[in-house]
């Protein structure tokens, strides 16, 4: 008895058996990959054009001295970075930036959480209360700052109300400590509404069964919040912390409108100092070097916060 051996190609045999040819599967995989790359191409192009290209140009200009009015661009090497190390104003600017950011971030997160906890309960006037704190988020930043500038004048509305109680208010924007505190308050009320909404959405997603179980076990409201609720919303807290910290390092318009970095340099943060050096003193090379310092500070803080997430973001464990 003779055994007949099939000599059909595997692709044709699988096709006759009801399968799909190997060449067809490879072609589908290539089409799927091409479709995926086409979907991310706009985002990738935007990152290249608006992130990597500006960073490359920033580093290029930091190695040069660009005199715009004279139309010259001279290579100076590391001279601008040497100027960073010898700049007598830079340590004070960095200290002011750190104080501004730490106080603003801490106050923003705490106040937003308190407001979110209050809004998570049902009471009369809830919608109006929510609108009052969120409306500054959608108001024009410059308009918001100009209004606060009128309120904080020496003869402004705030001091007018203080005089009703026999209190002689300071010249808020012309005295060092009060000027920095005023800018922090203006920025705080401008941005706290966004974090409030984020925290409120996270709180409404906490399972009520877990909260009830904690109360049955004898946990009070404070302990329930810190031991049950806060761990569950910790990813949202991390997001708000990163966004608020990065935003605090990029504050410019408020300082430019309210204090112009003064009095002295008491409210000169790094972002405003970059503008001052580059566009007021026409030191574009040095301004570019300072901008790279700001970029590195933001990058380092973001990486540190992201790496520390495994210690307190419970969803990551």
TrEMBL record:
Topology in membrane: Multi-pass membrane protein
- Subcellular compartments: Cell membrane
Residue span of region Disordered: 1-25
Q: Which residues cross the membrane?
A: 35-61, 93-119, 131-151, 179-203, 224-246, 284-304
Q: Which domain of life is it from?
A: Bacteria
Q: Quick one: where is this thing mainly located?
A: membrane
Which keywords fit this entry according to its UniProt record? Cell membrane, Membrane, Transmembrane, Transmembrane helix, Transport
Question: Which InterPro entries does its entry note?
Answer: ABC_transporter_permease, MetI-like, MetI-like_sf
Which positions fall inside the ABC transmembrane type-1 domain? 94-305
Q: What's the family?
A: Belongs to the binding-protein-dependent transport system permease family.
**Descriptive protein name:** Carbohydrate ABC transporter permease
